Amino acid sequence: MTTRAVVLGIGHYLPERVVPNAEFEKTLDTTDEWIRTRSGIERRHFAADDQTTSDLGSLAAKAALQNAGLEADDLDAIVVATSTPDLTFPSVATMVQQKIGMTRGFGFDVQAVCAGFVYALTNANALIVSGQAKRVMVIGAETFSRIMDWTDRATCVLFGDGAGALILEAQEGEGTSSDRGILSADLNSDGRYRDMLFVDGGVSTSGDSGKLRMQGNALFRQAVEKLAFTAQTALDKINLGHDDVAWIVPHQANIRIIQGTAKKLGIPMERVIVTVQDHGNTSAASIPLALSVGVADGKIKPGDLLVTEAIGGGLAWGSVALRW
Ligand code: UT7
Fold first, then answer.
1. What is the domain range of residue 124?
2. Closest ligand 1 atom to Cα of 256
3. DSSP conformation class of 159
4. How confident is the model over 45-81, as pLDDT tens digits?
5. Domain end residue (candidates: 115, 141, 173)
6. Is 324 in contact with 7 (CB distance < 8 Å)?
7. Closest ligand 1 atom to the C-alpha of 39?
């Protein structure tokens, strides 16, 4: 027998304010057509002025608890993936803990930018298989609208706010790739690519939170190559191939990256969950949002083999193969 981290429930939250591409035409030298054709994005949600990342994360967490039929104190741990915390400290995870009424266990944040949810899932899996925790809430929550330079048309039209959450539970499996739960993971980073995507401020430099800077075209060229390789690596680790995959659930940065990666993997777009048109790039929130929408739409079903893959600032990238 092998301990597996199996998904018990999922939920998400998107802020009320929806901003269509056309709104940027009023203030920037851009068009709906450019944004749509270069990125696949049609609209995104922006948090209200008084909404923080932990607010979004808590609402997603409550939805996941309801979906799983659990109470907050049924959880042992919360792992939040975010690069846009409410404060430098304490962690968003401890704020979510308080907001959902969880009075036991522990919580911490993981920061791997757009790859954050893949890293957080892998951390949560390690907590479960090592016996540190039986039930772990894994959240991706971001307010990227707060680190946009609204004069930079090459970045500010691409990002959005939101949160997704799922709950993992320790269950016994057979130790084969037919088990439900997390089956394999592949994590990578390479700090030599720092300048491709970063925020130009922080605690020990400028003292403020800074704005996002990106060399989009250079990153684009890295993304397809690295994403296809990491997804294939996660599959190779469990001796499964592209025919076994029910759904690719990619980080939602750009439809052309999503299409290029699927093509390299030999997986048709009919088996890829795509939400980039409605959410934009929500960084660490994009994969749990896509998972939650995929389940709500009746696409992702129990027993399906999923592969998630993501790349972002660092560069940091990786993938997780799991059976729903
Ligand atoms: O989540 C983390 C991972 N993030 C990513 O993976 C993002 C990766 N990169 C991308 O998604 C794409 O590179 C972008 C969507 C950011 C840009 O698409 P692109 O096809 O790589 O365009 P580009 O950067 O090569 O720019 C093409 C042109 C430039 O004009 P010139 O130099 O050809 O005259 C830009 O100035 O498009 C111009 N441009 C715009 N035009 C209208 C850049 N932004 C805009 C804009 N509206 N918003």
1. 2-173
2. 11
3. B
4. 999 999 999 999 999 999 999 999 999 999 999 999 9
5. 173
6. yes
7. 15
